[in-house]
């Protein structure tokens, strides 16, 4: 029965991504790139400037902290093991080419990330001292559908709380197989599950401010150290870089590599890695975007756009360069952590696998915390109950503990399907509401051209919650 169910989920996942979701993500990204006049490139310097703006007071979440929450969720074990799998899976027809399509789709998807995060800011709410929002909120407020808002919230909770968080714990534990050959049959899965569950509990029971404090401190450090190792390996093999880049572009446009079998083609693997890892258009990151207190919705749209570049252009590329310059042959039979650990072992000795193991645990923990924040926001959308929330947190901690010691082929396929369905709901919503986000962007550009620090008033643009983006809010930023 389990095998049949897993097979069904696998077939459904392949159909959903191969024939519907990937195409819809790409078309949506291209559409918004055109409609925003390539906002991800045109306003990239402005996004960097906005990122440095200070908090208005000591309580609210800053743009940088909201960015780190979303980046914590995006940057997970998939950025290491996932890239290795994409290259190894496509190697029979051109594994190098998958990297190019990963880059291209990240650049296109950044426009969708801008739209969804801007909408999340427009329709956010104040719950106690915290700002909350996301697709469930703008589906209810802007499209007038509480039912579809709840559908989205349920899909996100099931996917992130019980699917991806359990899977992150499992992936973190499997990195120990390098040191413990019989890891699965030892006591270590219990130890790993207990440690990750305890750390997760300490983080999530502290609320959004503790989550933002942890991620804003942990994510930049771990990303910088990981990128530093990638740069070291790149510089060490600098003579091979032109050959590597030539292979990436050559295989990206090789007809056999592009079209020989959808599942293993470099296009499919690159698109899956690029869009799936950075979540642009998926509807998850807007939940973090809504948490920031900013003077104009577009500011957080620009900042969240950066997370796509951090995830794919920086972190995923670091992994790809480590692998392709390592001198270790690409073997379709050696994927995931085995390929990565072999690559760094060949370049920096025994320190390499140890570093990767530590990195996997840090990446997994940051994702556990970032993913939980998304689920809490959506749980409160369905029912704002303190008792219910605490019970929900207990189940999330339990999922992390159990995840470290289970076989997750079925849960992985289930999470894929849930995330695919979640993305479909969100993509339809942002396509219907995209015109509103464009009007908000137009207002931002007009204020910038007038030499102002853009401050938003919903009454002047006709988009967003007028009770949130009111005159009182505007005066706070103009003082």
TrEMBL record:
PROSITE patterns: NA_ALANINE_SYMP. It is a multi-pass membrane protein. The chain crosses the membrane at residues 15-34, 93-115, 148-167, 187-205, 217-235, 308-330, 354-375, 387-406, 418-441. It is found in: Cell membrane. Keywords: Cell membrane, Membrane, Symport, Transmembrane, Transmembrane helix, Transport. The keyword Transmembrane applies. Belongs to the alanine or glycine:cation symporter (AGCS) (TC 2.A.25) family. This is Alanine:cation symporter family protein.
């Amino acid at each position: 029965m389990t095998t049949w169910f897993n097979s069904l989920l696998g077939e459904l996942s392949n159909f959903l991504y191969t024939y519907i979701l990937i195409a819809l993500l790409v078309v949506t990204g291209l559409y918004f790139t055109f409609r925003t006049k390539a906002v991800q490139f045109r306003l990239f310097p402005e996004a960097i400037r906005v990122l440095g703006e200070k908090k208005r007071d000591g309580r609210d979440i800053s743009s940088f902290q909201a960015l780190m929450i979303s980046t914590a969720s995006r940057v997970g074990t998939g950025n290491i093991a996932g890239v290795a799998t994409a290259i190894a899976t496509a190697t029979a027809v051109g594994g190098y080419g998958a990297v190019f399509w990963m880059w291209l789709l990240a650049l296109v998807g950044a426009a969708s990330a801008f739209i969804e995060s801007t909408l999340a800011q427009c329709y956010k709410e104040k719950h106690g001292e915290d700002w909350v929002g996301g697709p469930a909120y703008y589906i209810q407020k802007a499209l007038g559908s509480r039912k579809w808002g709840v559908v989205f919230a349920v899909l996100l909770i099931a996917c992130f709380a019980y699917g991806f968080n359990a899977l992150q714990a499992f992936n973190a534990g499997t990195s120990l197989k390098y040191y413990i050959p019989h890891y699965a049959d030892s006591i270590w899965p219990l130890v790993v599950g207990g440690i990750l569950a305890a750390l997760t509990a300490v983080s999530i029971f502290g609320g959004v401010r503790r989550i933002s404090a942890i991620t804003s401190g942990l994510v930049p450090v771990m990303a910088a150290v990981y990128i530093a190792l990638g740069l070291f390996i790149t510089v060490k093999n600098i003579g091979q870089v032109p050959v590597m880049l030539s292979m990436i572009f050559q295989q990206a446009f090789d007809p056999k590599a592009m079209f020989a079998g959808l599942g293993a083609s470099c296009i499919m693997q690159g698109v899956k890695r690029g869009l799936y890892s950075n979540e642009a258009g998926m509807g998850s990151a807007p939940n973090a975007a809504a948490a920031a207190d900013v003077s104009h919705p577009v500011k957080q749209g620009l900042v969240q756009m950066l997370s796509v570049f951090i995830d794919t252009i920086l972190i995923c590329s670091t992994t790809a360069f480590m692998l392709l310059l390592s001198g270790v042959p690409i073997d379709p039979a050696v994927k995931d952590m085995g390929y990565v650990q072999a690559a760094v072992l060949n370049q920096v000795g025994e320190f390499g696998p140890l570093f990767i193991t530590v990195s996997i645990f840090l990446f997994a923990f940051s994702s556990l915390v970032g993913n939980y924040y998304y689920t809490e926001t959506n749980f409160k959308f369905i029912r704002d109950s303190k008792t219910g929330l605490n019970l929900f947190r207990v189940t999330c901690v339990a999922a992390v503990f159990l995840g470290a010691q289970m076989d997750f082929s079925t849960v992985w396929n289930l999470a894929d399907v849930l995330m695919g369905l979640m993305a479909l709901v969100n993509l339809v919503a942002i396509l219907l509401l995209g015109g509103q986000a464009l009007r908000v962007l137009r207002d931002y550009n007009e204020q910038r051209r007038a030499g102002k620090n853009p401050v938003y008033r919903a009454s002047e643009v006709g988009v967003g919650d007028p009770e949130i983006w009111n005159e009182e809010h505007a005066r706070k930023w103009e003082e």
